[in-house]
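Example 303, ligand phosphoric acid mono(formamide)ester.
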Amino acid sequence: MSTVKHLLTLNDLSKADLDAIIARAIAIKADVKSGKINETLKNQTLGMIFEKSSTRTRVSFEAGMTQLGGSAIFLSSRDTQLGRGEPIEDSARVLSRMVDIIMIRTFEHEKLERFAQYSDVPVINALTDDYHPCQLLADIQTYIEHRGSPEGKTVAWVGDGNNMCHSYINAARLCNFKLNIACPKGFEPHADIIEKNRDFITLTHDPIEAVTGADWVSTDVWASMGQEDEQQARMQQFAGYEVNHTLMQHANNNAVFMHCLPAHRGEEVSHDLIEDKNISVVWDEAENRLHAQKALMLFLLDK
Ligand code: CP
Ligand code: NVA
């Protein structure tokens, strides 16, 4: 049995692991801001496989690795043999003999699992069709920094039952918060994930019901990467799901708004809400990708 640690979903972490990663992320953030150098990953290399586009994930991992004294190699499937059909199992065995840690952004979650199975080094899920755990590390860090522990709080997810929603479900279990999910009919999270987490989630088709009494409200694009053809149809199917000031009036007084970004203003979120500094914490959330992932890499590498 391999002892290599991976982060394929948040379920790979215990609560103690999560707490340690977030505490480290907060400490690392303070160190960076005070100009302290930390080159714990000197001479180490991160391989970054991207089969989908990215701004935040690429830059945060690459900058994070630089800050830790290591380096990162950007591997687009368009330019590697992966894109020409080299088996995932072969790519995993080859790459993991050359680099120290690997992150992958791909389509099928099963492909990531197969890669990890054949990798000798830690593998990080940098987004699949089903999960986006790195984003949740940043979101949890952001909530803690702004409002303290999310334990016992109510979180509302408004929108598609997608990869982000699935990771919020995993976070609800891990952090012990209540998750109200509002999605249009036909866009619910996967049935098996709902089934396993019934104790933590409430499912509705009414955004007001989901947001009522919430301490933290989050949403995401209506059409994810790979669903571009559905964009027009989804604009109709998700009508009424915009998170705006009117909807936020149903949340608790000090509720925060989060969005993993990129955001489509006038669709899933109003311009005014995302720009409202009293409610929206999206820029801190984006920044925390950097700090949380540095802490994650150190954790997976036992540093
Ligand atoms: N939130 C997020 O993962 O952004 P990117 O797609 O830009 O990496
Ligand atoms: N659900 C979105 C998240 C982007 C960070 C997507 O998969 O495209």
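Summary: Residues 47 and 102 are 5 Å apart (CA to CA).
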